[in-house]
Write a structure and sequence with these properties.
Elements (H helix, E strand, L loop, with lengths): L2 H13 L3 H17 L5 H20 L4 H5 L3 H11 L4 H25 L5 E2 H26 L4 H25 L5 E2 L3 H21 L2 H7 L3 H15 L1 H8 L1 H36 L1
Antiparallel strand pairs: 1-2
Length: 279
Amino acid sequence: MKRYNLVEEINLLSENMSIENKKYCDDLITYMRVKGFLKNEEDINEILLEILKDILDAQAQGVKAQDYFGKNPKEIADEILYELPIDLNTSFKILSYILIGYIFFMAIPSIIFSQKPLDVGNFLINAVFIISIALVIFYVQGRSVYGKKRKIYNLISIVVFIIAVNISITISNVVSTPLQISTKGWMGIGLILVSFFVLALLYYKGDENDKKMLLIFIPLVMSSGVAGIITRIEFFMEFTKTTEGKIFVYIAMLLLTLLQYFVIYRKMKKQNNIKKINI
């Protein structure tokens, strides 16, 4: 069974539960997915599916989820996750999403305008920092699910994220390395086209969930990339160097990005309506 189908079936089973059982199962699902984010996601979803089926059967007989599965689901979930090996493909995929988001966010100024070279060394330093912070946030969020001070854990995650963003921006502006690539002219256009190709390849090879994740980045990358290509074409170069030209580029990029998100939203809404009809 594909991962997307597993997730849909899990969500459907959860919706058919009583309010108390749904809360119990939603916490269990969240905990196992967050705590086991470096494990094989399909294995975790298959286990969750079996657990939810059993709980739903128990519910039909008048047995509550906590009476069937236990009043301390965290310990049982930890035992299950301990038996599952770390999955390198899943780990690489999750870390790749984090890096893609970071790289495209920080590289947008260099993509659109070519005044500054792309500091690859700076990116590598920041990448190690961002991945480390992501691991900390995953750990904190995992503890928050069954923690007595859930709001405090969530607050810690938000504070850590805000501090990390500021440190990352500081590193980007202060640290400079010799590993720099020029983003001017055809070199910049080539880098933009490569980023388009990589994103298209990831989207083409990904499953439904991967595609949904990538759709967060695609509109922004496409818009900034198109803007970057235009600013490097000699015919538009002089205009885009002016203040008015830069404002025009940013406004056009914003409108193009919003248009893409709107089209994606409409398409996804239509697909969800079709699925509801089929169900």
